């Protein structure tokens, strides 16, 4: 049987990347993309060479959060896609940077989506990287499955909020990983309370410690947490997330957990 040329490219293309992390969540809106960005920025600041790949076809939010406009450069002859260079050590590509019309919705059937995801993973010229952070579509459907099955040696970073309804979906994602024999690097809790702007006290508006407890119960490593921070949301909306994430998020910053676990 012939070997699919894209399969070959995929293997070759990802061979120079030491750690491939797929960021997954059970449901949308829990901050999966925000956490993927935190990991990418944090790891690049720590001196690693990092790529951030956004394959969330229906809600590609990475370009907006990082303030990347325009289109990715595509070298049509060689069928290669050049990542956008944010700064030394951080390169980004998103499905949105390949779409002619950014406002248009993606209405594709399964095989088309699978093709696009595989192409994104096979054709982007990352060069050598220490970490590739992949922002995968939420849930346990065809799309995260394609990501998981096409990246050899990938490990999963699960993202949840402390709320029970998010934790219930997280357990499904965990089951998905176990059924597919996908190693899980650990769990990140997002929107882990906020600091009251009036009294400075901690407000656990989505419940307390749910992510950390779930990690402990499921035998997962707890990688860290991000508080809910209005500045984070405003920076993401305004395309200034990179500069905000450069500030110190403390001992609990998720990228620190990743450095500890992955290396
Ligand atoms: P997902 O990728 O899971 O759909 P996003 O990362 O797009 O979620 O986040 C959803 C929304 O919540 C965005 O507007 C984002 O800016 C905001 N958000 C995510 N995490 C935080 C946080 N820790 N603090 C404040 N806003 C956040």
Model description:
The chain is an alpha/beta fold and 263 residues long. It has one domain (5-254): P-loop containing nucleotide triphosphate hydrolases (Rossmann fold, 3-Layer(aba) Sandwich). Helices cover 38% and strands 21% of the residues. It has 10 helices and 12 strands. The protein has helices at 5-14, 32-45, 62-66, 110-123, 142-150, 164-179, 210-218, 230-237, 241-245, 254-262, and strands at residues 17-25, 50-54, 73-75, 80-82, 84-87, 90-94, 129-135, 155-160, 184-189, 194-195, 202-203, 222-225. The longest helix is centred in the middle third of the chain and has 16 residues, at 164-179. The chain is globular. The mean pLDDT is 88. Adenosine-5'-diphosphate (ADP) is lined by residues 25, 28-34, 59, 61, 190-191, 226, 228-229, 232-233, 236. Homodimer. Binds and transfers iron-sulfur (Fe-S) clusters to target apoproteins. Can hydrolyze ATP.
* Biggest sheet details: 8 strands, mixed
Average pLDDT metric: 88
Task: Please give the CATH class.
Answer: Alpha Beta
Question: In total, how many domains does the architecture comprise?
Answer: 1
> How many alpha or pi helices?
10
Protein name: Iron-sulfur cluster carrier protein
GO biological process, one term: iron-sulfur cluster assembly
Keywords: ATP-binding, Hydrolase, Iron, Iron-sulfur, Metal-binding, Nucleotide-binding
Pfam family, one: ParA
